[in-house]
Design goal:
It contains 14 helices and six strands. The protein is α/β, with parallel strands linked by helices and 305 residues long. It has a six-stranded parallel sheet with strand order 3-2-4-1-5-6, with helices on both faces. The two termini are 18 Å apart.
Length: 305
């Protein structure tokens, strides 16, 4: 079996992963593959911080902005797509550089897929219908009793993941945490994980500035147009941070000032969860975001070994 070497760049939102990825791609002769679950959605490039056209021109990019907002992302299927793209890059002589902040998706990818059986569509539909009736926060509270470990990793306002966890519990009698423990890393993979260090206090003003830049770049109009094309605020693509806040301005009459505050609060809470997740991963080699030379050197050493 031909070896597949993956350079994985991880970190909380706003830590500078795009800049580091471009430095890696330029130095290594690489192609970037997205493994962030929000950056897959079409028409939401600004609010989900997808690489710009100018950034994508530096090197090949894949799996950004290709999925309609009404289609959910499933970790297993997404991992298959990511691996297929990584193999394609390898066969083209490019180093696959995986970039993202969704730790669960990276775990599904590099540690193998959990052998979760197909879920009865009736079970799935019943869970989704209940979520629409009572809200994802109510279902998240139930999930905290059934699978507290997984519930702690996801946001109460993420109906896609909350519903998935509950449907698996209901249909299989086992939690997602249990299923995720039944995985094994594929034999072909060699994986390097590089993390961008940051603490929440230092990151918070950067996140606030990032929101302002997104608004200046047209995030509000982008969400309005996306909602016009798919007028369902519960669509999976609108669960990413920034979308609910801007939809509240559009649909509920919330002020933009209040939406900014809510957006920053949600982003900060998400960054905190990301930092907690990645800090538990002992495979990650940490670098300061500005240490681009060190990041490149770490990747070169891995590829030469």
């Amino acid at each position: 079996m031909t070896e597949l070497c993956l350079v994985c760049l991880v970190g909380a939102t706003g830590t500078g992963k795009t800049a580091a990825a471009l430095a890696l791609a330029s130095a290594l002769g690489g192609g970037v593959v997205n493994f962030d679950s929000r950056q897959v959605y079409a028409g939401l490039g600004v609010v989900t911080a997808q690489p710009t056209a100018q950034e994508r021109a530096v090197c090949p990019h894949a799996l950004y902005g290709y999925l309609p907002v009404d289609i959910p992302v499933k970790a297993g299927a997404f991992a298959v797509e990511i691996l297929a793209q990584a193999r394609m890059y390898r066969d083209q002589g490019l180093v696959p550089i995986l970039v993202g902040g969704t730790g669960l998706y990276l775990k599904s990818l590099v540690d193998g897929l959990a052998p979760i059986p197909d879920i009865d569509p009736g079970v799935r539909e019943a869970v989704i219908a209940e979520c629409r009736a009572v809200g994802s926060q109510v279902l998240h509270a139930r999930l905290q009793l059934l699978d507290p470990e997984y519930a702690a990793k996801i946001h109460p306002n993420d109906p896609q993941r909350v519903c998935r966890a509950l449907e698996v519990c209901t249909a299989t009698g086992r939690t997602l945490t249990w299923w995720h423990g039944q995985t094994r890393r594929p034999a072909e993979l060699r994986v390097l994980k590089i993390g961008l260090e940051s603490d929440l206090a230092a990151l918070t003003p950067r996140l606030a500035r990032r929101i302002e830049l997104m608004l200046d770049a047209g995030a509000q109009e982008e969400v309005r147009l996306a909602f016009e094309a798919c007028p369902d605020r519960n669509a999976p693509g609108f669960s990413g941070i920034g979308c609910p806040e801007l939809l509240s301005v559009l649909l509920d009459g919330v002020s933009l000032a209040r939406a900014r505050q809510d957006w920053l609060r949600s982003t900060r809470a998400y960054a905190k969860r990301q930092l907690t997740w990645f800090q538990k991963d002992t495979e990650i080699l940490w670098h300061a975001p500005e240490d681009l030379a060190g990041i490149v050197k770490t990747a070169q050493t891995f590829l030469e070994s």
